[in-house]
């Protein structure tokens, strides 16, 4: 099955750490006593273990690609082309590293279905609850960004025929319906379709901006300032917000973990991560640098609106499927966590019972509804992603994975030079995550306050279209 074996010491230690009385954890062993998988292959039960590693890679790719590629180009204007490119490469490499740490930890402790289970193992029930809240908040915010993107697409295709809030509601209904697909195996086919849709849409707008004499949003007569800078000079608030947005574009690695529990061979997880993150890094660099070179400060947010009204309609027409799938994946991952948390020690977890389906549909509808509220309250694409990155993903995708590594490599602190260096590096990452959590959250909140103050955001739940706000 590709599961990493646990020594008797590890099993004893886990039982001691968690305690059989802890709510929400599954402590029963397989028949051979070897592991504690959440989803098991049992006669008469629904088989969730059906995801191949290529399917896992496209699910990972779709979690990350669509929203990130729409937000990074406008961050280039804030930071400048060179620092922006460094941020893209550095953050994606760091997020890849932390994703591998999380996967290795999960395969060494296969009872862990989510990042919250890992937090429970290393820090007890209090840390589990804190991480659970951050995890759910992160993917609710990301789902909100996807819903916002879909509503912007519907606005563009209809020439803002009705109030934006109605489009946001329609987008939420579509996303909730797609997210109700129960198994990641089925979601993989949606992910293939969604990734192809988003990739082609972005390619169209990238080619489109290179065919214009001047950016579509720039003054169409007379001189204008393109705003292209090799190195920018942002304020701390603007710079840290842009960095948080770029970081968030590849930070959804905690969403990878529940997929492992549904993989045919969990040991193939690293292959899926490396493939998806390589595609993400190269695509982000190529697309964002080209768009910034040709549009400068006149990049729309989301960036699909940067090549003029005609190309905007074409790209949203092609890419709206990808935006829907992105949002539904975020709703699905948050819902799957709650679903497993509620039914983990119940036979209904893998039975096609009324309780099973009623629980699943109720949770997906609830998560979608909360995402709708968030999308309506912060209707600027970049800010909503930056908030997810700073407040939630910084501790989830940097600090906690580093602590997981330290937990499993405690003896490396006093080992040889290389082991000590590795231990020090991971201890340093905890501080990096803490800085991003505090500093970037402050920056994003200040940017949102400024946006309300200067009229960039009219008001929450308004009919205004904020698609060109950056």
Automatic annotation (TrEMBL):
Domain Amino acid transporter transmembrane span(s) in chain numbering: 50-445
GO CC terms in record: membrane
Keyword Kinase: no
Subcellular localization, as worded in the UniProt entry: Membrane
Record InterPro entries: AA_transpt_TM (IPR013057)
Keyword Transmembrane: yes
Protein keywords: Membrane, Transmembrane, Transmembrane helix
TM helices/strands, residue ranges: 59-82, 126-150, 162-181, 188-209, 236-260, 272-294, 314-333, 354-374, 380-406, 427-445
Molecular function GO terms recorded: L-amino acid transmembrane transporter activity
Membrane topology listed for this record: Multi-pass membrane protein
Domain of life: Eukaryota
Similarity remark: Belongs to the amino acid/polyamine transporter 2 family.
PANTHER family: AMINO ACID TRANSPORTER, AMINO ACID TRANSPORTER (EUROFUNG)
Name of protein: Amino acid transporter transmembrane domain-containing protein
The organism of origin for this protein: Trichoderma harzianum CBS 226.95
Taxonomic path: Eukaryota, Fungi, Dikarya, Ascomycota, Pezizomycotina
């Amino acid at each position: 099955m590709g599961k990493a074996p646990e020594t008797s010491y590890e099993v004893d230690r886990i039982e001691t750490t968690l305690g059989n009385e802890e709510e929400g954890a599954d402590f029963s062993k397989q028949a051979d006593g070897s592991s504690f998988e959440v989803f098991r292959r049992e006669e008469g039960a629904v088989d969730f273990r059906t995801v191949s590693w290529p399917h896992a890679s496209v699910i990972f790719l779709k979690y990350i690609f669509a929203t990130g590629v729409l937000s990074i180009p406008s961050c280039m204007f804030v930071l400048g082309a060179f620092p922006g490119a460094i941020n893209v490469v550095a953050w994606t490499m760091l997020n890849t590293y932390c994703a591998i740490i999380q996967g290795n930890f999960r395969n060494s402790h296969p009872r862990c279905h989510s990042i919250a289970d890992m937090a429970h193992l290393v820090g007890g029930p209090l840390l589990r609850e804190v991480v659970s809240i951050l995890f759910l908040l992160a993917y609710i915010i990301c789902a909100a960004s996807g819903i916002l993107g879909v509503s912007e697409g519907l606005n563009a295709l209809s020439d803002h025929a009705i109030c934006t809030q109605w489009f946001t509601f329609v987008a939420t209904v579509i996303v909730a319906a797609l997210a109700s697909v129960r198994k990641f195996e089925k979601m993989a086919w949606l992910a293939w379709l969604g990734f192809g849709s988003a990739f082609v849409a972005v390619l169209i707008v990238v080619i489109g901006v290179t065919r214009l004499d001047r950016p579509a949003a720039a003054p169409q007569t007379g001189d204008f300032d393109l705003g292209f800078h090799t190195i920018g000079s942002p304020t701390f608030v603007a710079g840290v917000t842009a960095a948080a947005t770029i970081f968030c574009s590849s930070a959804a690695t905690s969403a990878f973990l529940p997929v492992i529990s549904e993989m045919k061979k969990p040991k193939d997880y690293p292959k899926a991560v490396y493939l998806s993150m390589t595609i993400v890094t190269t695509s982000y660099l190529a697309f964002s640098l080209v768009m910034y070179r040709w549009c400068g400060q006149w990049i729309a947010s989301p960036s699909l609106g940067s090549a003029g009204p005609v190309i905007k309609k074409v790209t949203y027409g092609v890419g709206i499927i990808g935006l829907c799938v992105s949002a539904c994946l975020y709703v699905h991952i948050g819902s799957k966590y709650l679903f497993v948390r509620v039914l983990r020690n119940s036979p209904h977890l893998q039975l096609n019972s009324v309780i099973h389906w009623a629980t699943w549909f109720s949770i997906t509808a609830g998560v979608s509804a909360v995402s709708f509220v968030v999308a309506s309250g912060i209707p600027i694409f970049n800010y909503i992603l930056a908030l997810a990155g700073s407040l939630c993903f910084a501790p989830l995708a940097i600090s906690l994975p580093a602590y997981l590594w330290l937990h499993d490599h405690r003896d490396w602190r006093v080992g040889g030079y290389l082991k000590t260096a590795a231990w020090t590096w991971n201890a340093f990452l905890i501080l990096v995550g803490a800085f991003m959590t505090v500093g970037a959250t402050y920056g994003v909140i200040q940017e949102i306050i400024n946006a309300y103050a200067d009229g960039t955001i009219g008001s929450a739940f308004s009919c205004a279209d904020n698609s060109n706000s950056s």
